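Quick one:
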Amino acid sequence: MTAYEIIAKKRDGLELTDDEIHFMVNGYTEGTIPDYQMASWLMAVFFRSLNVRETKALTNTVLHSGEIIDLSKINGIKVDKHSTGGVGDKVSIILAPIVAAAGVPLPMITGRGLGHTGGTLDKLQSIPGFKIDYSVNEFVNKIIIHDTCLIGQTATITPSDKKLYALRDVTATIESIPLITASIMSKKIAEGIDALVLDVKTGKGAFMKNYETAVTLAKNLIGTGDLFGKRTVAYITNMDQPLGNTVGNWLEIIECRDALLGKGPADLMELTYQLSGTMIFLGKKAMSIESGIKKAKELIANGKAWEKFMEIVTSQQGNTRFLENPDLYAKPKFAVDINALQDGYISELNALVIGSTTVTLGAGRLKKPDIIDPKAGIILHKKYGYTVSQGEKIMTFYTDKESIIPEAESRLQNAIKYSEIQPQEYKLILNYLDKNDL
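Output:
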């Protein structure tokens, strides 16, 4: 068996055996297969794809390249949530305390920003002192005590995924559905979960730009979860415009604070309640998704979700003083308004352009070693469907980089489109899928 033969086999559209997939992944992880051969194999997979059995074999190989967390000493059904990435998507930070306050154990290994999309870890680390690197034993113990813990991927969990992902990122093979499926599901199964709720984004600010591709990805993720005995459901959600009213790490944390105090924007809360209600149902703390949503709303209204959030932040060494009084946080050097160029309705707020611009402001990484500025970001004062008058404020962006201001102004103006007639209603949650829909 050689890498050359396996590359050629997949290049020609033939089905690979489990052993051939193990050989490629393990050889690359151990360093016996070089980057150039693995890149060729990834491109062959990108164009020729993998079938259900091959995808399971790839997922299994990546999963067993490292440690699988044992959560058996934690009572209850362990449930997690995963989003495929969006702009302004801070749902995990609101959802985790809601689900934990409902008594559902929630192990959450989360990631950093990727391209124009924000990362939960970067947002959490904008809270001064918040720690995201714990050992597996510490992670499990915190879930036992607090019902949840939010950490980054450890060195011992799916190490082959880290190496493969870095190569995919520079070889234009990110958008392969089997490769995405194996990457997501291997990490989630390694957490030791029993059930998973997926938020598969589609639209301008998503990796899956069209609806049909998002549905295909959701079905692949659900089917793979089912093969591993993990109950998996998915929502297809709209990412044409940013979620909520803020984009940028500390700005999004403030919005999470407002949401947990019962003052979150309608679109953010609609999605948060739907996802958290589904998790509460899968965790058998509600008889239906609808009653799970009701319970989630009650936990916001009675303050228990906020109390749980402060408990989580304290347990992970975050400084709650800044959450109690956000005015204490450092201020950005520059605040620039983006005003309407004409009267009318806002018919588009391009999430991709807004997300990409937020990165240039300092809220994300243009290069791997870049340091994130947690203060940088954008506040949206008006969104899709709103009426505006010429000169009215639509956005305000914040940065410490004076040189980027003219470019950011131009790009954000180009992200906005206007209409003389009211555009059709923006539908956020587009579909729900489970194994019965496959």
